[in-house]
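Suppose a colleague, Dr. K., hands you the sequence of a protein chain of 471 amino acids and asks what its three-dimensional shape might be. Before reaching for any lab equipment, you can write down a predicted structure in token form. Begin with the sequence itself:
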Amino acid sequence: MHTLESISELAPRIRRKKVSPVALTRDCLDRIGRDRIDKANPTLNAFITVTAESALQEARSAETEIARGQWRGPLHGIPIALKDLIDTAGVKTTAASALYQNRVPTEDAEVVRRLRQAGAVIIGKNNLHEFAYGGSSLVSFFGDVRNPHNTEHITGGSSGGSAAAVTAGLCYAAIGTDTAGSIREPAALCGCVGLKPTYGRVSARGVLPLSWSLDHVGPITSTVSDAAIVLQAIAGYDALDTSSADVPIEDYVSTLRESTKNLRIGIPRKHFYDDLDDEVSQAVEKALAEIRPLVAELRDIDLDVPTDRAVQLAESYAYHAENVAKAPELYQPETLRRIRLGEKISAAEYILRRRELEEARRRAHELFADIDLLLTPTIPIPALRIADLKKDPEALRPAELVLLRNTRPFNVWGLPAISIPCGSTKNGLPIGLQIAGPQWREDLVLRLAQAFEQEVMEGRTPSSAQPPAMS
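The predicted structure, expressed as tokens, is then:
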């Protein structure tokens, strides 16, 4: 793997013209190219489409603007990738499906428009679990995505290509989506940072849906400060998105420096800490002990956890019903099977479950009556072996539901949650820690994540590579 310098480190140097956006982009494209040398069997298979020509043009434009003193902010000239269900004008958006293999949108998704406005360089579209309907990234028309730490293991999903690309240094950040954990799970299994904002914080307009009521859009990065930088650029009200909320945005970057000493932390042992892999349990308990001196209080609490999946099943079927009837052969068989499960959900049941979801979100503030944040393992087990899941296809979905067990409740509640690395197994597979907070308090989530990353994890990773200077 190639370790990149962080965006927060690079941005001031780009602004001072000490680092070249064109050279940064070329370096990323070279690394992507090396991964894709064998097109029939790419090492990681993290990208479906690489937009080399337009990326270099965007990088040249950024370099020119910066040279003229027109620096737009910390994402200006930074190569970023997009999960390939996020619309890009004039560039294929496939959702990793044969159904959409030649689909070319005419407009950018709102999140892409905001990234372009911030001066980011869009370097390509990441592979994923087909239509985001799974947590392994092993069901894709374009082939399996593989874990950079050990290519015999899964990346998780559905944003598997995005997490793999960031971890392997193929881009500086990526935008993923999260319906039951699809940003945080692959971030945990690949050893990077994945942030799911509050429901409605980031526009989902122009993003192919899995479940309108549960879909969240957010950043996957190498550091917490980079997640804050990307969130700052993409967050905000979109009047054309029915799920978007008109709520003020914090200065996520500056609040990273605020103290965590007054924070009260809840540990929901029931459900989230049940049946953990031994190495995951040891790493998380060590992390809790290391966090204790950083905060005011850390104590066990009880939570009632939602487990019903009727809303997601029904909404997924509603989106796909017409295409499933017309061209079922264009779906991967396992995706088709999952979609058809939603056909059994009656309108009455959907309305009832959707009402329950709204009630759960309205009551979510009660979870934080006596605490400020929640801490859990992101995933109960380390990344599974691809061969083990392939030899028994019927075991794939049950395994994915285990992987997504700890992340999914925060989609139901619509709460902000982040996964950050907190250790690894003896075989070098990453382990993630999940921090969740009240609605609209991404600043609190990021603040504790930053404190843990700097106070505890800093020094455990290899030194960053030096970026190329401007000519």
